[in-house]
Write a structure and sequence with these properties.
Layout (H helix, E strand, L loop, with lengths): L2 H49 L11 E3 L12 E3 H16 L6 E3 L4 H13 L9 H4 L3 H8 L16 E4 L10 H13 L5 E5 L13 E7 H14 L19 H6 L8
Antiparallel strand pairs: 1-2, 3-4, 4-6, 5-6
Helix pairs in contact: 1-7
C-alpha cells in the first residue's frame, strides 16, 4: 500500500472514529430541539383552548361539581377546585353574619357561552325586553348592545372556572335591601377569601368594558395568572365561531373587554 492510499484510509478511520459520533450527536441535539419545540407549541395550543373555553369542564381534573346547596336554579355547574373550596369558606363566614351567598352561574365553556350569545343575537332571548334582531338592524350596534353585559364566546372569564355570579345577575336586585346587604358584605369581606368584583363602575380606573356587575366575582389566586396568559397567548384570530363574529376586528375585544377589569383584580 503506497503512502497516498494509506493517508486516505487513515483519514476515513479518523472520521469514523472521532468525527462521525460528533455529527451524530449534533443531529440528535437538533432532533431533540425539534421535539421540544413541538411539545411547547402543543402546550401553548392546549392553554389557548382552555382560555377560550374550548374544553369540557365535566371531564377536566381541575374542576368539581358545585353542590346543589350552594347553587341557584338547580343547574349542574362546575368550578375550579380551589375557587370552590374558598367560596364555601366565604359562604360560611357570610352565613354567620346573616348573609346567604349562592352561586347563580359558574363555569361556562365556549359552547355554552355561544348558546347564550347566539340567542341574544337572533332574538330568541330578549335583551331589556327587546328582540335585538328586530330593534337593532346594524350588526355592529347589536354586537355592542350585547356586550353591555355579555361576553362574546372565546372572551368570557367564565370559561376559566374562576368567575362566579353570586345571587343572580340583575342590576335591579342589588338595589333591593337584601341585595344591598349582600353586596356590602362582599365588598367588605370577599378579598379575604380571594374574590374580587370583576366589573366595577366604569370611570377613570376602568374606561371600557362591560357595565358594572355587582354579582360577578373572580377568584384572583388563579384568575390573575389566567388574565396574563390570555394577554400573551390569545390573539384576535382565536375569537370566532359565533353569530356576528365578522364584527370582532372592529372592537379590540381583548384590550377593551377581557383586560378591562377592576384594577384590584389584576
Amino acid at each position: 500500500m503506497n503512502i497516498k492510499v494509506l493517508k486516505i484510509v487513515l483519514g476515513l478511520f479518523l472520521f469514523i472514529f472521532f468525527l462521525a459520533p460528533v455529527l451524530n450527536h449534533d443531529n440528535l441535539d437538533l432532533e431533540q430541539q425539534e421535539i421540544n419545540e413541538k411539545l411547547a407549541l402543543e402546550k401553548i395550543a392546549e392553554k389557548r383552548a382552555y382560555l377560550t373555553g374550548r374544553f369540557d369542564q365535566t371531564k377536566h381534573e381541575d374542576f368539581v361539581v358545585i353542590s346543589e346547596q350552594y347553587s341557584m336554579g338547580g343547574n349542574k355547574m362546575y368550578l375550579r377546585k380551589e375557587a370552590y373550596a374558598d367560596f364555601i369558606k366565604m359562604r360560611k363566614a357570610a352565613s354567620r353574619d346573616g348573609i346567604n351567598l349562592l352561586i347563580a352561574s359558574a363555569t361556562r365553556n365556549f359552547d355554552y357561552q355561544r348558546g347564550l350569545w347566539n340567542r341574544k343575537w337572533s332574538g330568541a332571548s330578549l335583551v331589556e325586553g327587546k328582540n335585538l334582531s328586530v330593534s337593532i338592524s346594524s350588526e355592529l350596534e347589536r354586537f355592542n348592545k350585547i356586550l353591555e353585559y355579555s361576553a362574546a364566546p372565546s372572551t368570557s372569564r367564565h370559561h376559566w372556572g374562576t368567575d362566579i355570579d353570586i345571587n343572580g345577575a340583575e342590576p335591579a336586585y342589588f338595589d333591593t335591601p337584601k341585595g344591598i346587604a349582600e353586596y356590602e358584605w362582599l365588598t367588605k369581606n370577599a378579598k379575604e377569601y380571594g374574590f374580587c368584583q370583576t366589573y366595577t363602575a366604569k370611570g377613570e380606573e376602568r374606561l371600557s368594558g362591560y357595565n358594572e356587575e355587582k354579582w360577578h366575582w373572580t377568584y384572583t389566586p388563579l384568575s390573575r395568572n389566567f388574565t396574563k396568559e390570555y394577554q400573551t397567548i390569545v390573539m384576535e384570530a382565536d375569537i370566532y365561531g359565533f353569530s356576528g363574529e365578522a364584527q370582532v376586528p372592529t372592537l379590540n375585544l381583548i384590550e377593551n373587554y377581557v383586560l378591562a377589569i377592576n384594577p384590584d383584580c389584576l
